[in-house]
Write a structure and sequence with these properties.
alpha/beta; Rossmann fold; about 325 residues; 12 helices; 7-stranded parallel beta sheet; two-stranded parallel sheet
């Protein structure tokens, strides 16, 4: 089986674009399916198809003559109505699966999230056997879990697919996480009583493992339906990492500390006010965000090492050096 033509949903986004660049270096033909048009992708020679992932007909049409689909597109924001998450994450993935079957796509590599198994408690060195929780505190993990289940079911019905769970992707050109940290740098306060650890993954490593998953799936079709945590394989202190990012941006570290109870109360008030006045922008704090910063999240990636041969090529320290260099070029 030969893989020649790849399609990346959300190819103009942070992870999507990184995957596109890696694929082009392998001399593959690449198509991006996104809502927007991206001049940078055009300059790379990428075919771009504009469309809504929630539009089934548009997705089926876009997937014509494609060998492998990297389904990266999702609503990953901190603040939106449930329908916005459901349409993008669940209906969108359902449409991708339908398009894969309709167009006889050879492979689907699906980008999920470790948040799908977050149950509100510390998660330390856990593996893929941990079940989904009974309930969720936010629509993002809930809808991503629903989508993940659909991909697993599709694999049981004949679609060759692998599911990846990268945690906190960061690096140069990040247009999601880093801007939020930098924008709030002067107002940030530490919270929590212990040294929480979390996994992250540098952008190049995240892109690499997606392409590696396709390669291994081609070599071993029995891997279809498998789920993999992927990370730097070196958990970091949550607030230490925030300080490292701020340092790379030439900003001072976080000063001051408040209790988790105080921050949770503030987040609850922000959410109430933003809902009451139908404010579209992200509130400074959400309860889901507070939970993420006041619990440990790190994962055992032995399965990805064994099955996919994944080992992060770029260390966290090297990634921070590259991030600092990038900040110097954009200032």
């Amino acid at each position: 089986m030969e893989i020649k033509h790849a399609l990346v949903t959300g190819g103009g986004g942070f992870l999507g674009k990184a995957i596109v660049k890696k694929l082009l270096k392998k001399n593959m033909s690449v198509t991006s399916f996104s809502r927007s048009f991206y001049p940078e992708l055009e300059n790379m020679g990428v075919m771009q198809i504009q469309g809504d992932i929630a539009n089934k007909d548009a997705v089926i049409k876009a997937f014509n003559e494609i060998d492998v689909v990297y389904h990266v597109a999702a609503n990953a924001g901190m603040w939106a109505k449930y329908d916005a998450y459901y349409n993008a994450n669940v209906i969108g993935t359902q449409n991708v699966i339908a398009a894969c079957f309709k167009n006889k796509i050879k492979q689907l590599i699906y980008t999920s999230s470790p948040s799908v198994i977050f149950n509100g408690s510390d998660q330390e060195n856990i593996d893929e056997s941990v079940p989904y929780p009974d309930s969720y505190s936010a629509p993002y993990p809930e809808t991503k879990a629903m989508a993940e289940r659909k991909v697993v079911k599709a694999s049981q019905n004949g679609l060759s697919a692998i599911i990846l769970r990268p945690h906190i992707i960061w690096g140069p050109e990040d247009n999601h996480l880093l801007p939020r940290i930098i924008k709030r740098a002067k107002k940030l306060k530490r919270f929590g009583k212990k040294e929480y650890l979390m996994d992250t993954i540098y952008i190049d490593n995240a892109a690499d493992v997606h392409i590696l998953a396709s390669k291994r799936l081609m070599e071993d079709p029995a891997l279809s339906g498998n789920i993999y945590f992927v990370s730097q394989d070196e958990p970091v202190n949550i607030w230490g990492m925030v300080d490292d990012v701020l340092n790379a941006a030439g900003l001072p570290p976080v000063k001051g500390q408040v209790s988790v109870k105080t921050v949770t109360m503030a987040a609850t008030i922000f959410e109430f006010v933003y809902r009451l006045f139908n404010i579209k922008s992200d509130p400074p704090l959400t309860r889901f965000g507070v939970e993420g910063l006041s619990k440990s999240h790190w994962f055992n990636i032995s399965k990805a090492k064994k099955d996919l041969g994944y080992y992060p090529k770029v260390s966290t320290q090297e990634g921070l050096k590259r991030l600092k260099q990038w900040f110097l070029t954009v200032e």
